[in-house]
């Protein structure tokens, strides 16, 4: 494949003023009065890491609106510290999304763990990018942040969230947070989860109805078998009373999830300093996490970080974009950064020769250019890789970051702010007018990404 970015490499192929206006229009259209839905069709509620990315983009339009985005999400935090991956809007019809509030039954099944009685949520979590988002939002308008008491109100919530992950979710006992459902790391349908997921007995097909296929073609979505296993895992967790210590059929230490937690710990330390708190515990957790990440999840043979299946206590022989996300870890030793850049620009991901960053190994047998997280390129993971390349600070990584930024903006514009794109053609797949695509395009347009 010839390179996409040669002469005129950083031309995004669109007028930046029109792109900014169009991205702002998407976010305005997806605002429901308290938060931003990922899309009006397939995702009509508020999602956890979606809202963090939305806030990062919204800070360039309205820092106060960005603050409110995070405040509303964290308002549904459970007493045990978890931030649920969905906060349900009671105004949305019951059958508009599955699994909905009637499935999760959070206020009943999770009541003894501190699920809020005033709002229905899911019981699982998503990657912890919230502290990073809160710090960036604060820095966008410190005066407004201080006036509203934004950081003092969020700091204890974010600290409780990180403590939940460090305690309740250290299922392997080695200092890393574990995921108990493929939806938790955000890369829902990745081939990275195929092996541990194969052990899960699927739910009966007549016990639920998939609503996602009403809004998207089946070829873009998870298979019926995979979806039945997702339902079974979520149902078992609910029926355990959302007990993290229960015997989970799926237990994995994911490099992407833990890398974002490390970056978030450093952001939390900045937040705690700003409000007069003690940053030491957050920094200590970040250092322990980094040590565990590099010793437990590094696959030297593939030159990438890999998930560890706690069922077998072995690294999974896969290469997903989650294995590149440690690029965003502050202070990652250069030996790992250099190897990750080599892998990213090699045949597995083709950085600079594909559209953005494929979500899975281009050479892998399970790669699918169009199916949800099994190969397509996503805008949020591209934003994270871009951030990591920028932070690495070498001439090579800066050039790669600049080219990736141009590619993200070009693909966002040409795809109509699609949920994700085919990495070979750039054709938009999934839902159009997707919120985090618009938000992160706004952030890259602003050209004001702060140092990690």
From TrEMBL:
Keywords recorded for this protein, A-Z: Glycosidase, Hydrolase
InterPro entries named among the record's database cross-references: 6-hairpin_glycosidase_sf, 6hp_glycosidase-like_sf, Glycoside_hydrolase_63, MGH1-like_GH
Mannosylglycerate hydrolase MGH1-like glycoside hydrolase domain boundaries: 43-437
Keyword Hydrolase: yes
Pfam families found in the cross-reference section: MGH1-like_GH
Sample GO molecular function, one term: Glc3Man9GlcNAc2 oligosaccharide glucosidase activity
GO biological process: oligosaccharide metabolic process; protein N-linked glycosylation
Family: Belongs to the glycosyl hydrolase 63 family.
Stated name of the protein: Mannosylglycerate hydrolase MGH1-like glycoside hydrolase domain-containing protein
């Amino acid at each position: 494949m010839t390179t996409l970015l040669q002469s005129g490499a950083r031309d995004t192929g669109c007028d930046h003023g029109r792109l900014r206006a169009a991205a702002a229009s998407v976010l305005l259209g997806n605002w429901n009065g308290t938060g931003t839905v990922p899309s009006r069709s397939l995702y009509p509620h508020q999602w956890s890491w979606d809202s963090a990315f939305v806030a990062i983009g919204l800070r360039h339009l309205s820092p106060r609106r960005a603050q409110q985005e995070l405040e509303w999400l964290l308002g549904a935090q459970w007493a045990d510290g978890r931030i649920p991956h969905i906060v349900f809007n009671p105004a949305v019809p019951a059958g508009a999304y599955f699994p909905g509030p009637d499935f999760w039954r959070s206020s009943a099944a999770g009541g003894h763990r501190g699920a809020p009685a005033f709002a229905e949520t899911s019981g699982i979590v998503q990657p912890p990018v919230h502290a990073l988002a809160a710090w960036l939002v604060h820095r966008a308008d410190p005066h407004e942040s201080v006036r509203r008491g934004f950081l003092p109100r969020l700091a204890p919530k974010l600290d409780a969230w990180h403590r939940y992950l460090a305690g309740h979710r250290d299922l392997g006992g080695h200092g890393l947070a574990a995921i108990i459902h493929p939806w938790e790391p955000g890369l829902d349908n990745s081939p990275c989860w195929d092996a541990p997921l194969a052990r899960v007995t699927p739910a009966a097909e007549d016990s639920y109805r998939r609503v996602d296929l009403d809004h998207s073609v089946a070829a873009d979505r998870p298979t019926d078998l995979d979806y039945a296993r997702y339902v079974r895992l979520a149902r078992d967790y609910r029926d355990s009373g959302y007990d993290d210590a229960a015997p989970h059929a799926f237990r994995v230490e994911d490099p992407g999830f833990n890398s974002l937690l490390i970056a978030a710990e450093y952001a939390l330390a900045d937040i705690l300093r700003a409000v007069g708190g003690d940053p030491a515990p957050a920094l200590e957790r970040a250092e322990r996490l980094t040590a565990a990440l590099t010793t437990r999840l590094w696959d030297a043979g593939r030159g990438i970080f890999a998930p560890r299946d706690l069922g077998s206590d072995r690294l999974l022989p896969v290469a997903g974009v989650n294995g590149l996300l440690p690029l965003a870890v502050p202070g990652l030793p250069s030996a790992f950064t250099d190897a990750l850049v080599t892998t990213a620009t090699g045949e597995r991901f083709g950085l600079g020769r594909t559209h953005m960053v494929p979500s899975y190994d281009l050479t892998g047998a399970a790669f699918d250019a169009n199916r949800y997280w099994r190969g397509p390129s996503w805008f949020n993971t591209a934003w994270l890789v871009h951030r990591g390349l920028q932070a690495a600070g070498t001439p090579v990584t800066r050039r790669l970051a600049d080219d990736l930024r141009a590619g993200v903006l070009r693909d966002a514009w040409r795809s109509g702010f699609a949920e994700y794109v085919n990495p070979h053609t750039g054709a938009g797949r999934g839902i159009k007018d997707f919120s985090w695509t618009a938000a992160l395009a706004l952030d890259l347009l602003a050209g004001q990404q702060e140092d990690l």
